[in-house]
Amino acid sequence: MDGTESGWTVVIADDHPLVRDAMRHALMQSLNDVQVVDASSLDEAKAAVDRLGAVDLVILDLNMPGMDGFTGLAAMRAAHPLVPVAMVSATNDETVMRRAIEFGAAGFIPKSAPLETIAEAIGQILDGQVWLPIPRNAPSSGTGTSRQDIASRLGELTPQQLKVLSMMSQGLLNKQIAFELGVGEATVKAHVTAILKKLGVHSRTQAVISARLLDFKTVD
Amino acid sequence: MDGTESGWTVVIADDHPLVRDAMRHALMQSLNDVQVVDASSLDEAKAAVDRLGAVDLVILDLNMPGMDGFTGLAAMRAAHPLVPVAMVSATNDETVMRRAIEFGAAGFIPKSAPLETIAEAIGQILDGQVWLPIPRNAPSSGTGTSRQDIASRLGELTPQQLKVLSMMSQGLLNKQIAFELGVGEATVKAHVTAILKKLGVHSRTQAVISARLLDFKTVD
DNA sequence: GGCCATCCCCTACTTAGGTCTAAGGCCTAT
DNA sequence: ATAGGCCTTAGACCTAAGTAGGGGATGGCC
Fold first, then answer.
1. Residues in domain Response regulatory (chains A, B) (predicted)?
2. What digits encode the pLDDT tens for the residues A18-73?
């Protein structure tokens, strides 16, 4: 990896032929002497590395048959600890990127990145460095609202609150909910406030969006 | 696709430069005289079609800034009813594909398809046919009518109103929407009122529910 | 030109949504 | 008996949401 010795060998593992093709073009454009090997599943990728022996980089799609999230990355690392792996995915989620590094990836390349950035990233990784599209220490902020997160928050709701949330997500007004449940509007408002707090959002609309993300169905 | 009259013009709208690039290669490989125009967002795509006038095909990614699932497709169809649209996405979900056709797409191309299949699909679509990777019958049942209904109502919205609705369905407040668009909050409220009227609902929450019925996010 | 329709933007107003504080009744566990 | 959780309500208060109506710019149409 000093640049004088050229002739890189790179394995591209992605189940989308389209993406493999594009990645190959990007590689051949930025490196002058590179051999590219295709793989459309994790097993194929591992077999390719076994066969070739000296591989300089494996480009792994995060969502691919056999990957199962990061378990595929871990498997690849276990089988070939010396071969650097660059993860590729459509996500921009910082926590995902960081976790990829924790699992031994040498870099994370979002598909949304411009071609030059991708080329630069691959160059740095081939050079032995770690590449991330974000600063390495950023606070990761607070918007980590994954499904599981929401699901666990929903579990904290009391039965009555669940009913109210269900009606909210059908588009009912507080007044209508109060009538349906046979209680006062003030009560409904109290429930709504509690729901918003537990879900960690700040408006009725956001609560409804969260609920519908889980295909939250009517209780009635 | 008769080969005698050549000179196609195709707009590729995808936020991933990698995919655009690959698609361009696929196009140039299977068609001999084709002009390809890039767009990285729905707005850019619409602007490109406006500018070029005679466009033979728009290739639209389902997951892209401004798309909001099928909302973007509906908007594009409303703005340019005569231009065929080919949807592209990483999903293989049949219901999603069929729904794309219901909303006026001329075809649905899964990214996981081999390059030859993609080329063949585009050829057929340019030839005026509808292309799907699956048989056309199977009724898909369900809420087809109401979806259709919503789609046609969405088509009546002005561009600005679509933007506002999109932001509403992300849980933004009127104030935030106003800031993002660089207008006054009162303006946003006026748009919201118009949206509610056109969608036939009576509250922001109901509008968001309707909009999200057309919203299909995949992780790909 | 004048006309009409549409869209976008705005001010001023009314209503719905949401917070805060405080409090009573019900049930269950300690 | 006491404590704690849940459901309930009330009133005051503030902010967000939605309505009504008008002004200005554009573009097609007679």
1. 9-126
2. 888 888 888 888 888 889 999 988 888 888 888 888 889 999 988 777 676 677 77
Given A19, A112, A209, which is nearest B208 (Cβ)? A209
1.10.3720.10, 2.30.40.10, 3.40.50.1450, 1.10.10.10: CATH of B144-213: 1.10.10.10
Q: Using CB atoms and an 8 Å cut-off, which of residues 119-158 of chain A contact chain B?
A: none
- What residues of B are in contact with residue A173 (Cβ under 8 Å)? 203
Identify the closest residue of chain B to A112 by CA–CA distance: B16
Closest among A64, A63, A73, A67 to A103, alpha carbons compared: A73
The answer to whether the CB atoms of B22 and A25 lie below 8 A apart is yes
Which residues are CB-neighbours of B182 under 8 A, at least 6 positions away? none
Q: Where do we find the tokens 């959002």? A: A201
Q: Give strand C nucleotides closer than 7 A to any protein Cβ.
A: 6-12, 16-22
**What's the Å distance between residue A189 CA and nucleotide C18 C1'?**
7
Please state the CATH superfamily assignment of the domain spanning residues A8-126 in this structure.
Response regulator (3.40.50.2300)
Question: Protein footprint on strand D: which nucleotides are under 7 Å from a CB?
Answer: 6-11, 16-22
Residue to substitute from A205, A212, A213, A216, interface B, most B β-carbons within 10 A: A205
Give B10: exposed, middle or buried? Use CB within 10 Å, 0-12, 13-18, 19+: buried
What string of pLDDT tens digits covers the 220 residues of chain B? 444 455 788 999 998 888 888 888 888 888 888 889 998 888 888 888 888 877 889 999 988 877 777 878 888 887 887 888 999 988 777 778 887 887 788 889 888 888 888 888 888 888 888 887 654 444 444 444 456 666 677 777 888 888 888 898 888 999 999 998 889 899 999 999 989 988 888 899 989 988 887 765 544 4
CATH number of A147-213: 1.10.10.10
Q: How far is the CA of B156 from the C1' of C2 (A)?
A: 29
Name the token pair of B129: 């046919």
How many residues make up chain A in this entry? 220
Domain ranges of chain B: 8-126, 144-213
Task: Give the end-to-end CA distance of chain A in Å, rounded to a whole number.
Answer: 64
